[in-house]
Amino acid sequence: MNASFNIEIRRIRELAPGIREFSLGRSDGEDFPVYSGGSHIVLSLPLGERQHRNPYSLLGDPTVRNTWRIAVRKQEQSRGGSAWLHEQAREGMRIDISAPVNLFPLDRLGRHHILVAGGIGITPILSQARELARLGADFEVHYAYRGPEYGVFADELETLAPGRIHHYVATRREQIEFSTLLAGRPLGTHFYICGPAGMVAASMNAGAALGWPESHLHSEQFLAPTGGEPFDVELTLSNKRFTVPSDLSLLEAIEQQGVDAPYLCRGGACGQCETEVISCDGELLHHDLYLSAEERASGKKIMPCVSRLKGGCMTLKL
Amino acid sequence: MSTLAVKSQPVYQELEWDRSGTHHILFVAAEDAALAHRLLANPPPGSMTLIRLNDSANPDSAWAKQLAASARYLEAHALPETLDLLREALYASRMGTRLYLAGPEDAIWQASQLADSFGMTRDEVRQMQLGTTARPVFCVHCRTITRGVHTNIVPCSGCGRALFVRDHFSRRLGAYMGFQIDAESPGDIPAAEVIYP
Ligand code: FES
Questions:
Q1: For FRET with A53, which of A127, B90, B108, B112 sits at 20 to 30 Å CA-CA?
Q2: Residue contacts between A and B (CB atoms, under 8 Å)
Q3: What residue ranges line ligand 1, CB within 6 angstroms?
Q4: b or e along A174-189 (b: 16 or more beta carbons within 10 Å of the residue's beta carbon)?
Q5: Under 8 Å CB-to-CB from A176, ≥6 apart: which residues?
Q6: pLDDT digit string (tens) for B79-125?
Q7: From ligand 1's centre to the CA of A290, what distance in Å?
């Protein structure tokens, strides 16, 4: 569905235990387009029979057009994507990627920007920091990670914005105190966070309690789809019936049927894949970050990239 | 000649507090005792600053009278000075601030431009028109803004052309568009009527 590129893996670097960086170049030798800070791409990984699509944030300089960079953390419960990138991927291999999409853009009218990264959430923050540095904007970065060896982009950040990078290392019992970080900030300040769910929620709550309006609080959080029990699906518009196996997401199973379903983030955040549920005779397991409580309760909508059905059969308008 | 439902013409809601804010700046450039009572009798949590344009022979302002003792009160006697007070207040303000603008369009849109320059966004600023409906008029020919226009036709304070005042409003400029009325047949200027009392 999205414009795509065939790329070659030019370089693989081990950054820390379980974190690898990939440098990608176009197989046809052409330049990539310029993207905006905070963008991600979707990689199509050849996992046996099927293509497995995973989103990753671009972390390099948005204006460098011959190389794009991503960093991948090996998920403990990987359904194959991050494991493939850690175990099978080699320099010189070619795969398809989508064009960049930005669901986490900077607000260029902001007067001051606070960027916060938790762990591998540093990747979109890095490209945002580069864009802000290039614009000469006023910003600061707060980077939290597990142990000193996991602060993988600390040096790059430091060269980008000397003295404006703050580190919080969990093994040193350092933690970001959001109600302090967000208090007393001048008007026009914008806050951006990418990190684990608990951290994002804590920051959003602190912001709301201090009276920050939603338009100044930006977050990105991609969920990895989890497996689950198999269930049956009927698609009314494309006239298909099939079973979603336990190791595929509903979206992946739909794609495997050759049906072109919409998506952008594949992580339950953007809302693009929202699909109407015509009927279902099992419990909807909503894992997304997008639907409201009322929408969930209505049982009329599902986000196929991360959500599933517990047993039974569902009919979708697709 | 003026059509009512032009999309670009701002529509104002009744002013209400945004109770998610932690500091509230109320900027008022006209009297409205009922509104002052409704708002100030039921203030939101957090601190409050009232900035008032006091240009009337009416020192007994309903705004000033109803204000809680804990609130900050600032006033000036002309619009530019009142806007200066607002600029200073915004400079000292922190995230969590909500701005409420009540008054004639000329005043509230100049105040709103000030808020923009501090990076405030639409969900932090609320506006309501009060008092005169006189219009600020932007001359599309010389780009001067003529303020306090009550009539449908007005001489531009910059270039002197006779301008017809349209309902087309620019939020960026905070003014209605004015076009030369006798561009086709010079000197043929109808009598101006007061339609923005
Ligand atoms: S693709 Fe973004 S929510 Fe499903």
A1: A127
A2: 52
A3: A 263-266, 268-273, 288, 290, 303, 305
A4: eebebeebbeebbbbb
A5: A116, A142, A144, A168, A199, A203
A6: 999 999 999 999 999 999 999 999 999 999 999 999 999 999 999 99
A7: 8
Residue ranges in chain A whose pLDDT is less than 70: 1-3
Q: Which CATH number fits domain B23-129: 3.40.50.720, 3.30.499.10, 3.40.50.80, 3.60.140.10?
A: 3.40.50.80
Question: Taking CB atoms and an 8 Å cutoff, what residues of chain A touch B123?
Answer: 213-215
Where do the domains of chain A lie, and which CATH numbers do they carry?
4-98 (2.40.30.10), 112-220 (3.40.50.80), 231-316 (3.10.20.30)
Q: Is A109 on the interface with B (CB under 8 A)?
A: yes
Mind listing the pLDDT tens digit for each residue in A185-196? 999 999 999 999
Q: Helix/strand/coil (H, E, C) string of chain B?
A: CCCCCCCCCCCCCCCCCCCCCCEEEEEECCCCHHHHHHHHCCCCCCEEEEEEECCCCCCCCHHHHHCCCCCEEEEECCHHHHHHHHHHHHHHCECCEEEEEEECHHHHHHHHHHHHHCCCCHHHEEEEECCCCCEEEEECCCCCEEEEECECEEECCCCCCEEEEEEEEECCCCEEEEEECCCCCCCCCCCCCECCC
Closest chain A CA to residue B18: A211
Neighbouring CB atoms inside 10 A of A285's CB total: 15
Q: Of A18-32, A125-139, B132-146, B182-196, give the lowest mean pLDDT range.
A: B182-196
